[in-house]
Automatic annotation (TrEMBL), chain A:
Protein family according to the UniProt entry: Belongs to the SufE family.
InterPro entries assigned to the protein according to its UniProt record, in alphabetical order: Fe-S_metab-assoc_dom (IPR003808)
Record-annotated Fe-S metabolism associated domain positions: 12-131
Coiled coil start-end: none
Tree of life domain: Bacteria
Protein name as annotated: Cysteine desulfuration protein SufE
Pfam families xrefs: SufE
UniProtKB/TrEMBL annotation, chain B:
A single GO BP: cysteine metabolic process
Origin superkingdom: Bacteria
Family that this chain belongs to: Belongs to the class-V pyridoxal-phosphate-dependent aminotransferase family. Csd subfamily.
Keyword Lyase: yes
Alphabetical keyword list: Lyase, Pyridoxal phosphate, Transferase
Residue ranges of domain Aminotransferase class V in the record: 31-400
Reaction catalysis annotation: (sulfur carrier)-H + L-cysteine = (sulfur carrier)-SH + L-alanine
EC number, as in UniProt: 2.8.1.7
Organism: Psychroflexus sediminis
Co-factor(s): pyridoxal 5'-phosphate
Name by which UniProt lists this protein: Cysteine desulfurase
Length: 144, 412
């Protein structure tokens, strides 16, 4: 299994092949369609990432010592963004998720989605995923 | 170009007044269709701000020195321009504020000491959050009841329901002159007359109306009227509260500070008269002066020509967009609309459309437009809103339609 770092590098390489924004967004829309969908029963108010435009739900489960994420959104570009994050973080150890850097966002040309005016900004999604990791990490530590 | 209003308005010349229209966004010429959020600023207004800081900057209403007098004169001349534009009886009925939100809060705060628990206040279903939340906060303070004037599917207010809601306990009515999310022009003359029939006072939020039509506060007999300068080609952070003299006199001051006092001792302060009672602290002086310059700019072009040309743009855009399948337009009240096109494409999220349009250099607003009750009414997450100004062109609408088709094909 690849590390978070390796997965980020893979994504950077994929995105580097695109010549313009249109190809990049077409790819993101494709990725959005392949998003590991959250189970309907987890599409609850508490799993929603509050934003002003599109709605995003993220859910996490522990599988052995790894965190698995599922998500959904009513906007397809947002789904593409969350799919990229899930590809990076899903199946990783909580500790690794907590410590992961996310500079790759910049490199794949999605910096504009980091702006706080963007509803469901990437920042809130990353924060939510890291919060899950922190919660599972402390659960593990308590058991140990 | 063959049509008359474009001939009346020299669009090429007008566009040259707006330096920002020359810039590119994402490598494409900017097509700015987010005028209902904020309008762009002409050189005449920008120059006025620069001139203030280069030649007139001093604090107003308090210096004996000449520069302070020059600045004061310019500021008060702007207040007079605003008075004249809205045809208020007295210049002291024009309170220069930080904008519509500030204006509304000033009135809401004042009524906290006037309203009683049995009183009712009416607010329309199509208000901007800034004309809902201050009244909710007021009701929490006073125990008064907030009631909602419902809307119809066409995006018009249900006037029959409004008549039924009015009663002897109704003290205040709040309606926007034009809906920001839909562009509907509300029948405010009728709303005001009916409210006065039960002795209720009316505040009209004119933020979205002011760019397109000229309100005459005396003819309307409106009690309070608010606008923001940044939506009428002026700077941000300035606006107006108009209030009838006796009603402004009745309200207590909103903020304490310098400028708003007549005499201060530690035992007691007596307040200054209008308008200074509501203008505590050093105001946005350059902004106030530029607000006047913006109104001059618009009046030089002429509101009739502006309205006629913007209506042509709206009609053209509406016809063209309807050629795209599965487009739904919100706010369809015929002949009672300003140049706002609020729409969705079936199966697509407004956020996705807005994001892709931006990549093609087209600035529109997407989302709930700070009017969530309207979105709730239509059961939609939001809309895409293209709002036009007199500096926009049919060619820009063509680019927008082409970009919209492209976005649709990418998303479906």
């Amino acid at each position: 299994m690849n590390s978070i770092q390796e997965r980020q590098e893979e994504i950077i390489e994929e995105f580097s092949m695109f010549e313009d924004w249109m190809q990049r967004y077409e790819y993101m829309i494709e990725l959005g369609k392949s998003l590991p969908l959250i189970d309907e029963k987890h599409k609850t108010e508490e799993n929603i990432i509050k934003g002003c435009q599109s709605r995003v739900w993220v859910y996490a489960e522990m599988d052995d010592d790894q965190v698995d994420f599922t998500a959904d959104s009513d906007a397809i570009i947002t789904k593409g963004i969350i799919a990229i994050l899930i590809r990076v973080f899903s199946g990783q150890k909580p500790e690794d998720i907590i410590n992961a850097k996310t500079d790759f966002i910049d490199e794949i040309g999605l910096k504009e989605h980091l702006s706080p005016t963007r509803a469901n900004g990437l920042v809130s999604m990353i924060k939510q995923m890291k919060m899950y990791a922190i919660a599972y990490n402390s659960q593990q530590n308590n058991k140990a | 170009m063959t049509n008359t209003s474009e001939q009346i308005l020299d669009i090429d010349k007008i566009r040259k007044d707006f330096p920002i229209l020359r810039r590119e966004i994402n490598g494409k010429p900017l097509v700015y269709f987010d005028n209902a959020a904020t309008s762009q600023t002409p050189t005449q207004v920008i120059d006025c701000i620069v001139d203030y800081y280069e030649n007139k900057n001093a604090n107003i209403h308090r210096g004996v020195h000449s520069l302070s007098q020059i600045a004061t004169d310019a500021y008060e001349a702007a207040r007079e321009t605003v008075r004249k534009h809205f045809n208020a009886e007295f210049a002291h009925e024009i309170i220069l504020t930080a904008g519509t939100t500030h204006s509304i809060n000033l009135v809401a705060n004042g009524y906290a000491s006037v309203l009683k628990p049995e009183d009712e206040i009416l607010v329309s279903a199509m208000e901007h959050h800034s004309n809902i939340v201050p009244w909710q906060m007021l009701c929490q303070k006073t125990g008064s009841q907030l009631k909602v004037i419902p809307m119809l599917h066409t995006g018009e207010l249900d006037m029959e329901a409004y008549k039924e809601l009015l009663n002897a306990n109704t003290k205040l009515v709040f309606v926007n002159h034009v809906s920001n999310a839909l562009g509907t022009i509300n029948p405010i003359e009728q709303i005001i007359n009916l409210a006065h029939g039960v002795d209720a006072k009316v505040l009209i939020d004119g933020a979205q109306a002011a760019p397109h039509l000229k309100a005459d506060v005396q003819a309307l007999d409106v009690d309070y009227y608010t606008v923001s300068a940044h939506k009428i080609y002026g700077p941000t952070g300035v606006g107006m509260l108009y209030g009838k003299e006796e009603l402004l006199n009745m309200l207590p001051p909103y903020q304490g500070g310098g400028e708003m006092i007549s005499e201060v001792t530690f035992e007691k302060t007596t307040y200054a008269g209008l308008p200074h009672k509501f203008e505590a602290g050093t105001p946005n002086i350059s902004g106030g002066i530029a607000f006047g310059a913006a109104l001059d700019y618009m009046n030089d072009i002429g509101f009739e020509a502006i309205a006629a040309y913007e209506m042509e743009l709206l009609n053209y855009a509406t016809t063209e967009i309807q050629k795209i399948e599965e487009v739904e337009i919100y706010g369809t009240s015929p002949d009672k609309k300003t140049a706002v096109l609020s729409f969705n494409i079936q199966g697509l999220h407004p956020y996705d459309i807005g994001t892709l349009l931006d990549k093609m250099g087209i600035a529109v607003r997407t989302g709930h437009h700070c009017a969530q009750p309207i979105m709730e009414f239509y059961k939609i997450p939001g809309t895409v809103r293209a709002s036009f100004s007199f500096y926009n062109t049919k060619e820009e609408i063509d680019s927008f339609i082409t970009a919209l088709k492209k976005a649709k094909s990418m998303l479906l």
